[in-house]
Design brief:
Length: 143
């Protein structure tokens, strides 16, 4: 199995009362092992490399299920390509993306003050936010 968290993942899916299929486990545990947002094609080629038999259509279908089950979420970096990652409220983070090489890093930060500021200013109860950063990574800066 791809991920040593197999039992934990299996338990999580079972608790949600969902049917545990091999393919859902495959896609989910692959995303866990990558720990970075991945495109459908990246997910597909990683699984093929690991000798798993799964086609693109099935990956789309399984991602759709996992997204509705709020186990996986989409990231939009404004380049027209959908990326997926594990949705974990305990691991809330943002991304920084290199516009030259496409490198993606996860970043955790304390934005409580910022969220409060927006809430105070607008009177909104803020339920979620998306905050992504774009630029050039240190490697690309040197070129
Ligand atoms: Zn945040
Ligand atoms: Zn770069």
């Amino acid at each position: 199995m791809i991920c040593n968290n197999y039992r934990m993942i299996a338990e999580r899916i079972r608790k949600m009362g969902k049917r545990l299929t091999k393919q859902r486990m495959l896609v989910y545990s692959l995303l866990m092992s990558l720990s970075k947002p991945a495109t459908v094609h990246q997910i597909h080629s990683s699984l093929i490399k690991r000798k798993e038999k799964i086609d693109l259509v099935s990956i789309y279908r399984n991602l759709d299920f996992l997204e509705k089950a709020e186990m996986v979420c989409q990231c939009d970096f404004g380049d027209g390509t959908k990326r997926y990652e594990i949705l974990d409220v305990k691991n809330h983070h943002h991304h920084i993306i290199c516009r030259n090489c496409g490198r993606i890093e996860n970043i955790s930060m304390d934005e409580k003050k910022l969220v409060k500021k927006v809430s105070d200013k607008t009177g909104f109860l803020i339920e979620r936010h998306i905050l992504e950063f774009f630029g050039l990574c240190p490697k690309c800066l040197k070129i």
